[in-house]
């Protein structure tokens, strides 16, 4: 099973709202990722968690706040977003092994976010 | 110059055609090459994964890597309307010591297979 689940599927929020996106995997993967994808563009990496620790923050504005409560869950907390933050937010996971090889990332279906 | 170049298309072919999708790259440290398929409004789905140079076949799909030319290809035989999607190439160097890897994506090629 290579399933990554994300909730909600769709989210509409105002610029003053606070909301959270959730991601879950039960593959025993130890690396989890947040990506942002605009229409007709490839995914852009936002954050990487490795063994529940934040390893990469790609200079993402502080209105996006990631959280990794445990090895299976990844959250993205949203606050005071702008209309240009409207996009598909994708979660991915990988085994996270340091064998000298890369390990493949498996993506969830995404949350389509609209900021009004 | 982008690290990974991919023609965004769109590419329109008749059903049954052989499709060739390509990416070029500039970073010689890349050793791991992936193709993802993404249907409209869905997440990317891993299609093929190849290490270093060579060919890999899976059903109607063949991935080729030519590291000397820094060029990768995905061939789809007997294309079907259900193959209509965006195809993203992605590549990475070795896994970081922290146990994660960073994928560099191409722009994605939009493919339409018409009956």
Can you give a write-up of this model?
The complex is a heterodimer of chains A (116) and B (115). By secondary structure, chain A is mainly beta. Chain A contains no helices and 11 strands. The model of chain A has no long low-confidence stretch (mean pLDDT 92). Helix content of chain A is 0%, strand content 55%. In chain B, strands 2, 4, 5, 9, 10 and 11 form a 6-stranded mixed β-sheet that branches. In chain B, a hairpin with a 6-residue loop joins strand 4 (32-38) and strand 5 (45-51). Chain B has strands at 4-5, 11-14, 19-25, 32-38, 45-51, 54-58, 61-66, 71-76, 85-92, 104-105, 109-114. The N and C termini of chain B lie far apart (37 Å). By secondary structure, chain B is mostly beta strands. Chain A binds chain B through residues 2, 4, 6, 30-31, 33, 40-43, 45, 48, 50-51, 55-56, 88, 90, 94, 96-110, 112, and chain B through 8, 31-32, 34, 36, 41-46, 49, 51, 88, 92-103, 105-108, 110.
């Amino acid at each position: 099973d290579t399933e990554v689940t994300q909730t909600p599927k769709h989210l509409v929020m105002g610029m003053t709202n606070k909301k959270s996106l959730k991601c879950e995997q039960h593959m025993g993967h130890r690396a989890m990722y947040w990506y942002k994808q605009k229409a007709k563009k490839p995914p852009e990496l936002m954050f990487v968690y490795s063994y529940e620790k934040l390893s990469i923050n790609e200079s993402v504005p502080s209105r996006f706040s990631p959280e990794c409560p445990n090895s299976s869950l990844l959250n993205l907390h949203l606050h005071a977003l702008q209309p240009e933050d409207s996009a598909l937010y994708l979660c991915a996971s990988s085994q996270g092994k340091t064998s000298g090889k890369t390990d493949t990332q498996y993506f969830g279906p995404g949350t389509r976010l609209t900021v009004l | 110059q982008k690290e990974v170049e991919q023609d965004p298309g769109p590419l329109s072919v008749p059903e049954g055609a052989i499709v060739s999708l390509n990416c070029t790259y500039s970073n010689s440290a890349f050793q791991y090459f992936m193709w993802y398929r993404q249907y409209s409004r869905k997440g990317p789905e891993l299609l093929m994964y190849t290490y270093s140079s060579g060919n890999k076949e899976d059903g109607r799909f063949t991935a080729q890597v030519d590291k000397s030319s820094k060029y990768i290809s995905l061939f789809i035989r007997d294309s079907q309307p259900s193959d209509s999607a965006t195809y993203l190439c992605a590549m990475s160097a070795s896994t970081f010591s922290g146990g994660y890897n960073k994928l560099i994506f191409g722009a994605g090629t939009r493919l339409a297979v018409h009956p």
